[in-house]
Amino acid sequence: PDNGLVMYQKSFSPQDLARLKPFIESERYQALRGKHTTYHLLARTFEHMEREPLQIAFMHLQATWEVDTNTKGYLEYATYAIDAFKKYLESANPMFRDFVTAHILVAELHRRTSDFDRARQMLDRIKHHDESDKPYASRIIILLYKLIDARDSTPHAMP
Hints:
By secondary structure, the chain is mainly alpha-helical. It has helices at 14-24, 27-33, 38-48, 53-66, 71-91, 97-112, 116-126, 135-149.
């Protein structure tokens, strides 16, 4: 418990512990401990453990929530999250709802980091997707287009 491992499950197999120990005890990880949030550490651990790209992306997204009022921290974690979601999208099945959700989240992350052109590009890629016409997704997409047009990068509650 005092080595900085984020306890993300109740128990670990001997194989998991063997993979985790050198990573957690490394100088690199220990240096991250003092500077980064719990979810960022968890995302980095999941990367090391080769978890699913979408799971890693959501950990990076949650790290942005931990620093929402810290502009520099938000930008750093948003960049990690964008990269992780894009990695997921490289092989994602467009028939799954997560495909549209990932695009919406990347658009929102780009908007929050004032990269309005890329935010719009992400939404444009899915605006004709069947999932985008469903009530929940369509409300978010409409709001994001409005915020992008207004060049508004501040936090907003999503419908």
